[in-house]
Amino acid sequence: MTPLLETRGIDKSFGPVKVLHKVEFSAYAGEVTALVGDNGAGKSTLVKCVGGIHPIDAGAIYFDGRQVQVNSPRDAGDLGIEIVYQDLALCDNLDIVQNMFLGRERRNGLLLDEAGMEELAERTLSSLSVRTVKSIRQQVSSLSGGQRQTVAIAKAVLWNSKVVILDEPTAALGVAQTAQVLELVRRLADTGLAVVLISHNMNDVFAVSDRIAALYLGRTAAQVRTADVTHAQVVELITSGRSGDLGLKNGVTP
Amino acid sequence: MNQVKELPGEAVAAAKQSPSLGNSLRGYVERLRGGDMGALPAVLGLIVLCSAFAAARPAFVTSINFANLFTQGAAVTLIAMGLVFVLLLGEIDLSAGFASGVCAAVLAVALSEMGLPWYVAVAGAILTGVVIGVVLGTLVAKVGIPSFVVTLAAFLAFQGLVLVLVDEGTNISIRDPVIVAVANKNLPPWLGWAMYAGCVAVFAAVQLLRARNRSRRGLAAEPLSLIGARVGTLALIAGLAVYVLNLERSRNPALVSLTGVPIVVPVILALLVLWTLVLRRTAFGRHIYAVGGNTEAARRAGIAVDRIKISAFVICSCMAAVGGVVAASRASSVDPNTGGSSVLLYAVGAAVIGGTSLFGGKGRVLDAVLGGAVVAVIENGMGLMGYGASVKYLVTGSVLLLAAGVDALARKRAAAAGLR
């Protein structure tokens, strides 16, 4: 099975600091791939490279088996790669529909096609089985953290995206809302999307992911199936880059 | 895993809220409680002020004074309508008053000194507004100087520019019949009624069509009762206004008859409809709200934030130009004080009193018109009461402070309610 999104040997430096060393990463359609690693391991940088925000120094990005150039967020969007950032980038003073279509409004001639956008937004939300919002004409300022995350994710899904990357979607949420968002993450994968979940929370990772990719000091420590590893092994991969047979063979010094 | 758990403490509506008059009313009360006052303070203020002045000075409720209110408040209202765009971004334009003065001076020079036809002069004035807006907007958006400083500098510079244009303080009188008519002449009574009928009919038709279109697509549509109430209220208030304005208000009707809706009223209405349409129904308007609400989110959504900012300043300065033309028309002349003294603060006051937030992201063009009415009533009523400029300034200043206070407190309240 070819991965939908794959990076091969990506290097990235910021000035004298080398942040990514030959990073290998794959995400498969219909699966949730958890991207884990300690602070500064390079998770966000890798995602930003894939999202076209940072240019890569070496290596290549493959999408559906072919090599692609991602030079801007627009290129990523055209390929069907959507990133939901930690700070959700929603406008509080606009309603759910307006936020979901922000910057890509549907028009009827000069005027906005409000009814059409509302219909499509409603269809997208119900396809994700989102039933927790009173009205999709509600202002985002009146939504809870979990509901906002849901809107941000739905916004990413709206555009026939194929890969959805979620940066710490549950970091700021309570227990009940975390469960709600994780179910949504699972459902995204079940509809055939490749989902990449960046998370610090091992419980979340084991609850929803099919595969785990661990980064350690800018290197790929391991890519494993979630079913094949234990909680403790993943923690070891994150903190020391190796765990028994898994992980980096030669010791890497910080 | 296809069932979302019902979460405690979170409103999970099994069925969609049925749209009815009662529910709309409840929704409105909920918004008020949440700190979103909208235009309510302006409407209440208008009612209180009018009742107070009417009780104190019977002259306030005469038809001649009613007509005066419109022509007195027109220039400030027009400038305030433009300011709404800049305020929506969370910016400010302190130079809008003198920008209107500069544009009025351009108009006067073109008409009286160069003898150009009125439409060329008006085009020149508005073009001047465009240029001013582009310069201010570029300095704010591209160079990154805070709008407060840019427009404060422009406020001073434009005073100088007006002086240059009117030759260090001479008064240029305007005799062009078309320009003078704008703020001094009235529509024939039949035309007033015809426009009234047309406006109400179009308003009702637009509302009904939208509701029908939405219910046909299976979306929540506004109930007929709500649309009926809205159209009825508009028809009643506007009908009353047209009726009063069509009464004879000349002191000596045998000599000269003075009836009809002042020409500035349809001018303001047309611009109100135009800018409301732009803000509410176009992608450009949506982007203005987005930039005012969360600039970073707008940028990530691919909106050209700089271009939006510059356009808002251009619209603001253009509306200042229109306000300048109306002011010049009302005075039939332009002098170094046109657009000066209190015009700008009245305009900012009008927008804020009407419910436009100084923090950006919230406001409507209609707010400027309602707030403009409040400012006009205060100025007019105070004049009738025989108070001098001192009291007028004090009261208007207090009202502006009060409105800004309401705005800030509403925001705090919304934050406390977890809405922001």
UniProtKB/TrEMBL annotation, chain A:
MF GO annotations: ATP binding; ATP hydrolysis activity
Alphabetically ordered keywords of this record: ATP-binding, Nucleotide-binding
ATP-binding among keywords: yes
One Pfam family this sequence matches: ABC_tran
Domain of life: Bacteria
Keyword Nucleotide-binding on entry: yes
PROSITE patterns listed in its UniProt record: ABC_TRANSPORTER_2
Record-annotated ABC transporter domain positions: 5-242
Listed InterPro entries: AAA+_ATPase (IPR003593), ABC_carbohydrate_import_ATPase (IPR050107), ABC_transporter-like_ATP-bd (IPR003439), P-loop_NTPase (IPR027417)
Coiled-coil features, chain-numbered ranges: none
Protein name: Monosaccharide ABC transporter ATP-binding protein, CUT2 family (TC 3.A.1.2.-)
Species this chain originates from: Nonomuraea pusilla
Automatic annotation (TrEMBL), chain B:
Location, primary (coarse class): membrane
Topology of this chain in the membrane: Multi-pass membrane protein
Protein's cellular compartments: Cell membrane
UniProt cross-references to InterPro entries, sorted A to Z: ABC_transp_permease
A family per Pfam: BPD_transp_2
Signal sequence coordinates: none
Keywords annotated in UniProt: Cell inner membrane, Cell membrane, Membrane, Sugar transport, Transmembrane, Transmembrane helix, Transport
Superkingdom of origin: Bacteria
Any one cellular-component term (Gene Ontology): plasma membrane
GO terms assigned for molecular function: transmembrane transporter activity
Claim: Transmembrane is one of the keywords in the record: yes
Residues passing through the membrane, by range: 39-60, 66-89, 96-112, 118-141, 148-166, 190-211, 223-245, 257-279, 310-331, 343-361, 368-387
Biological role stated in the UniProt entry: Part of the binding-protein-dependent transport system for D-xylose. Probably responsible for the translocation of the substrate across the membrane.
Descriptive protein name: Xylose transport system permease protein XylH
Naturally occurring in which organism (per UniProt): Nonomuraea pusilla
Organismal lineage: Bacteria, Bacillati, Actinomycetota, Actinomycetes, Streptosporangiales
